[in-house]
Write a structure and sequence with these properties.
Chain A: InterPro entries: Stress/Tellurium_Resist (IPR051324), TerD (IPR003325). The complex is a heterodimer of chains A (192) and B (611). Chain A is mainly β. Chain A is built from 1 helix and 12 strands; from the N terminus they run E-E-E-E-E-E-E-E-E-E-E-E-H. Chain A has one helix spanning 181-188, and strands at residues 3-4, 10-12, 23-31, 48-56, 59-64, 76-78, 94-99, 109-116, 126-134, 139-145, 154-163, 166-176. In chain A, the strands form 2 sheets. Chain A has a 6-stranded mixed sheet, with no helix packed on it. Chain A has a 6-stranded antiparallel sheet with strand order 2-12-11-8-4-5, covered by helices on one side. The longest helix of chain A has 8 residues, at 181-188. Chain A is globular and about 55 Å long. Chain A starts with a strand and ends with a helix. By secondary structure, chain B is α+β, with helices and mostly antiparallel strands. Chain B folds into 3 domains: 3-206, Sandwich (Lipoxygenase-1), CATH 2.60.60.30; 254-349; 394-610, Rossmann fold (3-Layer(aba) Sandwich), CATH 3.40.50.300. In chain B, the strands form 4 sheets. In chain B, strands 1, 2, 3, 4, 7, 8, 9, 10, 11 and 12 form a 10-stranded mixed sheet that branches. The chains are: A mainly beta (192), B alpha+beta (611). At the A-B interface, strand 5 of A face helix 4 and helix 5 of B.
Chain lengths: 192, 611
């Protein structure tokens, strides 16, 4: 069952039946730009980037993005940069895997963001979405549709934060502008 | 359900009254040794053999046979016994090596006949004695481990390795093997044994001496199916970490899997310590901030003490949680290291690993080489093998200068230099021993003869291509020959005909040990050396410098690129190596043969018999 999340909605990442989630994946997919007929290599590619920022008590401790594909502690892993997008059929073109059991004890929030590195706004991107998946069984927990949105180049998607002994996820869906996660820091901080 | 073990794997034993079953394609002797917590035997009486069959809790079979069943009561073996080993040995008069017979199969069975764990001792070659299983005590519980450690020099070498003095071991081995092979029982038992021969090597009676190896000796067999990977068992209860198994990683061969597993452990250790350090740093900085806040707020002066205590408690609580996570991860890595180390092939193994007593001419060049051990202060006692792919991309530089590190400062120059040279010799022996015969060749430049004592084992055994080069003339001559080789091989490779070399060019990989640099070097020789360091690795010429950078300071910055191009190793523990993931400074420790051990000489003897 997929929850189409609305802004600010929080869902607990506890499984029904008592167990907590151990691994989640944030997937990002979008449709590649249409090929130019002649000189196809000069198509204006669309490059969206997924990033995750690890916070301890509102201080950024580590970042996972296309130039640092794994957090130093090994708990958050980016599967690699996709520069052009995919078929737009719902498959993930970039993914960030979080092993919640290995997240260091002082990290209490992980914020996921999406940026348009090549500068197109989400209005210009076709079939873009972002979703959170339970990595252990492939079940989709939450999904956002990005395209058709406003004239924004970035979005602060969601945060995963500690709640008691487990974790909970909050949908943020906050539009912003920026080329990489660094530009988003001021927009992230109010959500912590 | 029977647990089929792979080499190095262990399995818990809930029962203490068990039966040991041995099935072999040929008559073998089954012996049992009772050792202390390091597996050492107190004396000849700690081995149950046909001449003295009974030890507390066990009785070894009285004669060689293709099948054995004998009981073992672990509650009765005595409190001092921590490791009970099942040893198989080939009696005289039959096949002389396990490589010529079907792989023996050993099992531990419960009283009701159900097998608890079983192990097929594969991969043996010229060994004539092998430690098949080990039943050992771990925190008041017993476990069984598949050992599979063979000894080419036979039972005597096995017993020496288990701590018996040489003459006593030889005498005991002779006594144990002095039994008549009851051929009748062997023949009758051989048929069913062959029928259930685990590896399907055919009937046991097949004459082994005629086994022909059709593989090209120099070709890497890439088309053969990959070796089966060990499968870690499903964890007994949910949430418990799976029991580690040697070779639990991707790869085509066991060697490649172990290489990947060791690097996996290296990365996991780096990252788990990174998580711990990050948490402690955060806890400390938060404590500072909170203490500052408590002091700077004048209105809260009365409660400042309480605030300070609360801040400290918060810090300690977070650090304790980080420590608990670290301890959990380290326990898992330690358990993994415990099964991986004994399973490592010679190229990866420490010098005290019994694999060095095993047989064996390697058939293929190794994938990688152990250069030493790496550790972090947070994980005392956990030492990760430092494995580097062969051919080495960079030359090695063993730094015998005293200014390099604290440990070197504290040591006197002569001892440090000797240690550095011993380390170079150990690396040379390791490289020679793990390459097939004639595929590796060592040259030495020792202009002043200052390294003669350390080089003696190499010189004495005759493995060197030529005696160590002395004086300026020797330096020039050796460098010229190797430079010529590099040039010719490069030309041949560029021309697309790497096999078309002049007959006097040795196609084997080369190692050049340079001692006392820059003594005996003129400008021209220095240029040649730099050329070798740059161009050599690509065409199989490796450089191993044993040098003190300060002594070459007269050359100024001219030599900086040379030192940078080499991988610096230290003869004493030193923190100069960083991992590729989080850049911790790791403590490097060289791996030297144990003192008074003849392992180097033995390895060199084996190298010579291969030529």
């Amino acid at each position: 069952m997929t929850v189409n999340m609305t802004k600010g909605q929080a869902i607990s990442l506890e499984k029904r039946g008592g167990g907590t989630l151990t691994a989640v994946r944030m997937g990002l997919g979008w449709q590649a730009a249409k090929r130019r007929g002649l000189f196809g290599s000069r198509t204006r590619e669309i490059d969206l980037d997924a990033s995750a920022v690890l916070f301890a008590d509102k201080q950024p401790v580590d970042v996972v993005f296309f130039r640092h594909l794994q957090s130093d502690d090994g708990s958050v892993r980016h599967t690699g940069d996709n520069l052009i997008g995919g078929a737009g059929q719902g498959g993930d073109d970039e993914a960030i895997l979080v092993d919640l059991q290995r997240v260091p004890v002082h990290i209490d929030q992980i914020v996921f963001t999406v940026n348009s590195f090549t500068g197109q706004t989400f209005q210009e991107v076709q079939n873009a979405f972002c979703r959170i998946v339970d990595e252990t069984n492939g079940q989709e927990l939450a999904r956002y549709t990005l395209d058709g949105g406003g004239a924004y180049t970035a979005q602060i998607m969601a945060k995963v934060s500690r709640a008691g002994a487990g974790w909970q996820m909050t949908a943020l869906g906050n539009p912003a502008n920026g080329r990489t996660f660094q530009d988003l820091m001021p927009a992230i901080l109010p959500h912590l | 359900m029977t647990a089929e073990l792979v080499r190095g794997q262990n399995h818990p034993l809930s029962l203490h009254q068990v039966e040991i079953r041995v099935t072999a394609g040929t008559p073998v002797l089954a012996l049992v040794s009772a050792g202390d917590d390091e597996g050492r035997l107190a004396g000849p009486e700690a081995l149950a053999h046909p001449g003295a069959r009974i030890l507390p809790g066990l009785e070894a079979p009285g004669a060689a046979g293709a099948r054995h069943r004998f009981p073992l009561d672990l509650d009765a073996v005595g409190a001092a016994v921590h490791r009970v080993r099942v040893v198989l040995a080939l009696p005289g008069g039959g096949p002389a090596r396990f490589g010529a017979v079907p792989a023996p199969h050993v099992a531990v069975a419960a009283a009701d006949g159900a097998e608890v764990a079983a192990y097929t001792v594969t991969g043996l070659d010229s060994e004539s004695a092998v430690v098949a299983l080990e039943l050992y005590r771990r925190q008041d519980a017993w476990k069984v481990r598949a050992v599979g450690q063979g000894y080419a020099d036979g039972l005597g070498a096995l017993l020496t390795d288990a701590g018996l003095p040489g003459p006593a071991a030889t005498a005991l081995a002779a006594a144990a093997l002095a039994v008549d092979t009851p051929l009748a029982t062997a023949a009758s038992a051989a048929a069913p044994a062959a029928a259930r021969g685990p590896a399907g090597e055919g009937p046991a009676g097949a004459p082994a001496a005629t086994a022909i190896d059709y593989a090209h000796p120099r070709r890497r067999r890439t088309t053969e199916p990959p070796e089966p990977a060990p499968t870690p068992e499903a964890p007994g209860q949910a949430g418990a970490p799976p029991r580690p198994v040697a070779g639990d990683a991707g790869g085509w061969s066991m060697e490649e899997r172990l290489y990947n597993q060791v690097w996996g452990m290296f990365e996991d250790l780096a990252r788990t310590v990174a998580a711990y350090r990050s948490a402690v740093d955060f806890a400390d900085s938060r404590l500072d901030r909170e203490l500052d806040d408590a002091l700077s707020d004048p209105s809260a002066r009365l409660t400042a003490n309480a605030a300070r205590d609360a801040a400290r408690a918060r810090r300690d609580e977070l650090v304790a949680r980080a420590q608990a996570v670290l301890d959990r991860d380290l326990a898992q890595l330690r358990a993994e290291s415990e099964v991986v180390e004994p399973a490592l092939p010679a190229a990866y193994a420490r010098w005290d690993n019994p694999v060095w007593h095993g047989a064996g001419a390697p058939r293929e060049s190794p994938l990688a080489l152990r250069l030493g051990d790496l550790s972090l202060p947070e994980a005392p006692g956990l030492r990760v093998p430092m494995l580097m792919r062969l051919p080495l991309e960079r030359g090695l530089w063993i730094d015998n200068g005293r200014t390099g590190s604290e440990a070197a400062m504290a040591m006197d120059t002569d001892r440090l230099r000797r240690l550095a040279m011993d380390m170079a010799v150990a690396h040379a022996v390791r490289l020679l021993a793990v390459h097939p015969g004639g595929r590796f060749c060592v040259h030495v430049i020792d202009p002043a003869g200052a390294g003669a004592a350390a080089l003696a084992p190499l010189v004495r055994s005759g493995v060197l291509a030529a005696p160590p080069a002395l004086g300026a003339a020797g330096v020039t001559d050796t460098l010229e020959r190797l430079t010529r080789r590099v040039d010719l091989v490069q030309m041949a490779v560029r021309a697309g005909a790497p096999a078309e070399l002049p007959p006097d060019v040795d196609p084997a990989d080369q190692l050049l040990i340079v001692h006392d640099f820059p003594h005996g070097f003129d400008e021209r020789a220095v240029t040649r050396l730099r050329y070798l360091a740059d161009e050599g690795p690509a065409v199989g010429v490796h450089l191993l410098m044993v040098a003190d950078r300060d002594e070459a300071s007269a050359y100024g910055p001219l030599l900086d690129p040379l030192w940078r191009a080499l991988m610096r190793l230290s003869p004493v523990p030193d923190h100069h190596l960083a991992d590729p993931w989080v850049h911790h400074a790791w403590t490097f420790e060289p791996d030297l043969p144990p003192q008074h051990s003849a392992v180097l000489e033995r390895a060199l003897e084996q190298v010579m018999t291969r030529h």
